[in-house]
Write a structure and sequence with these properties.
This protein has 17 helices and 26 strands. It has an eight-stranded antiparallel β-sheet with strand order 3-2-4-1-10-9-11-14, covered by helices on one side. The chain has 598 residues and is α/β, with parallel strands linked by helices. The protein binds 5-amino-5-deoxy-1-O-phosphono-D-mannitol (M6R). 5-amino-5-deoxy-1-O-phosphono-D-mannitol (M6R) binds next to helix 8.
Length: 598
């Protein structure tokens, strides 16, 4: 989704800082970019459709674009196609007001009609453009820039993070409602952004804005205020990860780096929460929470983690159910005694926020299970459990899925009455090194190469390996653009088998040699009989290898952690398939890292 950067106090480095910030926001997904700078020459706006390099080219060609404060934006199209005109920043009729926006202004059409009737002319198809024209109206009425911006924001319905600059004013003006915004505080300079990586190189001190808050950034520093202009005291927090964590560290892609970061991410997730000697799990964040039932709400990859988590909880006797967040938001089940867990890497996904808000409105207690410290979900829910994976830049979620699965194992141990399961604790302890073993020894690249020309890729699994199949397919389709589907193995012969041919490889996860494994091997034989290449993802305990054309090994461990490890192999197959096809792995077409509109 769109990304915002802004800065004050960076002197002659203002433009460089903005463009650097935009490059750090690229991962969110975008199709045009632009900057607005205020300096002695008034307001200068430069914007271009396409990649950031197009904007860089335009800035080089123009020469002399400079200023002492400014804002920048990466746009992910919602209202109108990705053209130069629709790129942000947007301006008013005088060209003195520049605005960038993340979110959707729901009443923009009526505002636009009103402004056009009053003589304003519009240059773009966007909802955003009403804002600079509203600010212009306020300025014409004699208000100063800050008052005009407040007045304009008061007219808006919808979700927005807004930043505004005005020629002749020494401030960047900011407002937040339902879209993330964070300030970066440095000595002599202040930044604002949709996400910390945009300015992490310059400072680790941050202030998270809440809904309904305004901020003014100027040479004297920063001030946060409410809708009436009253100052709000905010705490300055410290980010616990380094700027290098948002670089590629020598890997070709963020996705591959993040796949390889999983041992560390999982160690961080477990640290201080598992007492191996005592055989106990503690999630201090949850206090003495003892839920009678749990609803897990999530989208995309996080939904697959939620399905996995609901199975763990059910198996241990805690009634639990996973829901698509968008469905939960519009038709929540009536039981308000459930603990509602929002599972979300970003903590900003609009569907999932909408679901946790619905739950709160209905009187349910809520827990955010998220990776993003200070995210909206983390701040709104009654409890928060961080998965501690570190920043994830690749659009395709990898290490955070493993982190969610691991944290859900911890939650299950805590939520289940009675002592923790020592076998699970032992398997969790070994999880980081088991993951490393896969990363060191995987033959996924060879498998990807040999199956590269396939028509489609199918993934099957039972019980805990069903969400693994769903996630394996989602990863494959997201980054390779190939047709891929995940099926519950038991459903195969009830329809999907019709799709299976000699050119549709089937990835089957088979763990142990119990009934589930035996039944899945039965499915493997069914697809083998239809000439489909079989890839067994297995610990080798059963004899599934006999029926497989390729084998992706996972260490022999507890079925709960085997489902985490099997996914690592599938991540690697998708990654290498996409790499060999020359896809845009970290920024797949049409996708955004954090989907902040419903
Ligand atoms: O930030 P969230 O975990 O709430 O995001 C949910 C989905 O948008 C996300 O998992 C999406 O499916 C990813 N692209 C998966 O790789």
């Amino acid at each position: 989704m769109c990304g915002i950067i802004g800065c004050v106090g960076c002197g002659d480095q203002t433009l460089t800082t903005l463009v650097h910030g935009l490059s750090k926001l690229e991962y969110r997904g975008y199709d045009s970019a632009g900057v607005a700078l205020v300096g002695d020459d008034g307001l200068q706006v430069v914007k271009k459709a396409g990649e950031l390099d197009s904007l860089r080219g335009e800035l080089d060609a123009l020469e002399g674009v400079s200023g002492t404060l400014g804002v920048g934006h990466t746009r992910w199209s919602t209202h109108g196609p990705p053209t130069d005109e629709n790129a942000h920043p947007h301006q008013d009729c005088t060209g003195d007001v520049g605005v960038v926006h993340n979110g959707i202004i729901e009443n923009y059409q009526s505002l636009r009609d009103e402004l056009e009737s009053a003589g304003h002319t519009f240059e773009s198809d966007t909802d955003t453009e009403v804002v600079p024209h509203l600010v212009e109206e306020g300025l014409e009425d004699g208000l100063d820039a800050e008052a005009a911006f407040r007045e304009a924001v008061s007219r808006l319905d919808g979700a927005f993070a807004l930043a505004c600059v005005v020629a002749g004013s020494d401030a960047v003006l900011v407002a937040r409602n339902d879209s993330p915004l964070v300030l970066g505080i440095d000595d002599g300079a202040t930044y604002l952004a949709s996400d910390v990586p945009a300015f992490r190189e310059f400072t680790d001190r941050v202030v998270y804005l809440d809904d309904g808050e305004f901020a003014r950034l100027d040479a004297d520093g920063w001030r946060v205020s409410d809708v009436k202009g009253e100052t709000i005291e905010k705490s300055v927090e410290t980010v616990e990860w380094d700027a290098e964590d948002t670089g590629k560290s020598g890997y070709d892609h963020f996705m591959l780096k993040e796949i390889h970061e999983q041992p560390r991410a999982l160690r961080q997730c477990l640290q201080g929460r598992v007492d191996e000697l005592g055989g106990t799990v503690t999630l201090e964040e949850l206090g003495d929470l003892e839920p009678d039932r749990i609803h897990l709400v999530a989208a995309g990859t996080s939904y697959h983690a939620a399905v996995y988590g609901s199975q763990l909880l059910q198996a241990d006797g805690v009634p639990a159910q996973a829901f698509f967040a968008h469905e939960y938001a519009s038709s929540p089940p009536p039981d308000t005694d459930a603990l509602v867990v929002g599972v979300s890497q970003s903590g900003e996904t609009a569907d999932t926020l909408s679901a946790t808000r619905t739950a709160r409105r209905h009187g349910a207690e809520t827990l955010a299970l998220t990776n993003t410290v200070g995210s909206t979900m983390a701040r709104e829910c009654d409890h928060v459990c961080y998965i501690r994976s570190g920043p994830e830049i690749g659009v395709a979620a990898t290490k955070t899925f493993a982190g969610q699965q691991t944290a859900l194992n911890l939650l299950t141990q805590v939520a289940t009455p009675g002592p923790s399961d020592r076998d699970v604790i032992e398997a969790l302890r070994e999880l980081p090194s088991d993951t490393q073993e896969i990363l060191d020894e995987s033959n996924a690249e060879t498998v990807a190469e040999e199956l590269l020309d396939s028509d489609a890729y199918f993934f099957i699994g039972r019980a805990l390996n069903y969400p693994v199949a769903l996630e394996g397919a989602l990863k494959m389709k997201e980054i390779t653009y190939k047709h891929a589907e995940g099926f519950a193995a038991g459903e195969l012969k009830h329809g999907p088998l019709a799709l299976v041919t000699g050119n549709t490889p089937v990835f089957a996860t088979v763990v142990g040699d119990g009934e589930l494994a035996r039944k899945t091997i039965g499915n493997v034989k069914e697809v083998e009989a239809r000439d489909a290449p079989v890839v067994a993802v297995t610990d080798g305990v059963s004899d599934v290898k006999r029926y497989a054309d390729h084998v992706l090994e996972v260490p022999d461990t507890h079925p709960r952690t085997a489902a985490i490890l099997a996914n690592v192999q599938l991540q690697l197959v998708s990654y290498y398939t996409a790499a060999k096809l020359g896809r845009s792995i970290d920024k797949p077409r049409n996708l955004a890292k954090s989907v902040t509109v419903e």
